[in-house]
Amino acid sequence: MYEKENEIIQKISQGMEGPLIDIYSLYRDEFILWSTKHYTINEEQSKDLFQDAIIDFQRNIQTGKLKVLTSSIKTYLFQIAKFKVINFIKRESRQTYIDDIELIKGERNAYILEEEKQYKLDDIAKAISKLPDDCQTLLKLYYYKEYDMSSIARELNYKNSDTAKAKKSVCMKKLIVELSKISKILIL
Prior knowledge:
By secondary structure, the protein is mainly alpha-helical.
């Protein structure tokens, strides 16, 4: 049933890159549409995760973990990519302190989860302006330009995406402190 697809697997295992490039081109846009519709990730994040799935797909073939398919290539690839999306969301949710990124984008008011107080966009802008320059840059790249952590790491010359995530976590804590100060000033 999957004879043609198993031939593609054989070609990839022999080191041919053409079939892998074809698979990437064939399914990338479809995966991006599907993943951004069903999960809370943006297009850039989806592209990165799909590319990671392609790399894992190739590695599985080259290491002999995948020799014969019992499903379609698309099903196999989407399953890898789906788990990458789920794991990505889990990692990101551990480091996000603001419920809605629309807050920083300026689309509407949002709530700080920790204190459950509503802040106006002007307050957030003031708080961000009081942060160190590196935090301001990182938060703007993440929220305004919607860069993923790998892109932020490259842009800011961090060692890797984990370093960028750790820095974002520190910056968000500083932002919450600044917002708390503004809140106390407003209450007085």
